[in-house]
Amino acid sequence: MMYQHFTGFPKNRVIGTGTLLDSSRMRRAVSSELGIDPRSVGGYNLGEHGNSQFTAWSTVRVLGQPITKVAAERNIDLAKLDEVARAGGYTVFHGKRYTNYGIASAAVRLANIIISDARTEIPVSNFHEEYGTYLSYPAIVGRSGIIEQLKLDLTDDEKQKLQTSADYIRTRFEDTVSSMTGSKVE
Fold first, then answer.
1. Which of 7, 11, 62, 156 is the most exposed place for a label (fewest CB within 10 A)?
2. Rounded distance, CA 96 to CA 90, Å?
3. Which is nearest to 88 in space by CA: 47, 38, 40, 49?
4. What is the pLDDT of residue 183?
5. Mutual orientation of helices 20-34 and 100-115 as an angle, nearest 10°?
6. Is the predicted pLDDT of residue 177 greater than 90, yes or no?
7. What are the backbone angles phi and psi of residue 52, rounded to the nearest 5°?
8. Active-site option among 5, 49, 94, 128
């Protein structure tokens, strides 16, 4: 949001890695629990790349079924898997003292998608008019930036979590700009 605010670039051309890395960590946590390849798990973490991110379990599919059904049948604790995904960065940091390889890999993947005009569905930070801010949400990305934003069928709880994350992001942006410029953001 800061970048777009100060450069004036079109909103569809301002993209961040968002929860790309977090979504990968979630898929790894689910795949580890089920003993399958992470590429066999689909779904997203949404919101900010940080404390207010969350796994949108309604988007996660595995073994040809919604994860919620598989979890109920196999007594899998989805809250525990969500925490594993959220704590992934902290775990890496405490083990290696840095996390630059993961985010570098995500940035390279995003750059390759843009350069090759791959038009790939990917969870990246992009502007959402209804929330008035950038947040991580899947979109089709290509050379011209955000080509199309996906429309997920989120649960009411997930919608509330996304709103909470958006409010957090927007408030931090407004506070930062206010402290830099001495005036309120409009």
1. 156
2. 10
3. 49
4. 63
5. 110
6. no
7. -95, 5
8. 49
For residues 11 and 15, what is the distance between their CA atoms, to the nearest angstrom?
Answer: 8
94 catalytic residue (yes or no): no
Say which residues have a Cβ less than 8 Å from residue 44's Cβ, sequence separation at least 6: 19, 23, 26, 55, 56, 59, 60, 123, 137, 138, 152
Cα dihedral: 159, 162, 168, 172 (round 10): -130
Closest to 142 in 3D by CA, of 160, 123, 121? 121
What's the CATH code, domain 2-175? 3.90.110.10
Whole-angstrom distance, CA of residue 140 vs CA of residue 120:
5
Note whether 28 and 147 are within 8 A (CB): no
pLDDT of 93 reads 45
**What pLDDT does residue 133 have?**
94
Query: Which amino acid is it at 39?
Result: R
Amino acid at residue number 113 = I
Cα separation of 60 and 30, whole Å?
A: 9
CA 75, 73, 59: angle at the middle one, nearest 5? 90
SS3 99: coil
Alpha helical stretches, state H, the chain: 2-7, 20-34, 67-74, 78-96, 100-115, 156-181
- Computed over every residue of the chain, the mean pLDDT equals 89
